[in-house]
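Handout, page 2. Input:
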Amino acid sequence: MDDADSRGTQTGEDKRREKVFDDVIKIISENMELSPMEITSDLNLSTDLPFDSLQLYEMVIDLEEAYDIRISDEDLDNVSSIDDIVDLIVRLT
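Output:
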């Protein structure tokens, strides 16, 4: 298949990542009481979305429950953006 034939089509991995992204946005918007439209993939969690410890804990619990995964403290320490969260979830699932 050449590039012209593959344009506009999403792979299963792309669709999965998009679904995870949408879920992460929903969970963050609910925990931070923000509009989902205000949250972009490159937002930094500590500077752009300054979670307090309770909000961060609730977000992690919600993500773990939504995906039946365990997010370690070490994994969480390596997350700085929304994209990082999505990548982590995709990797753990």
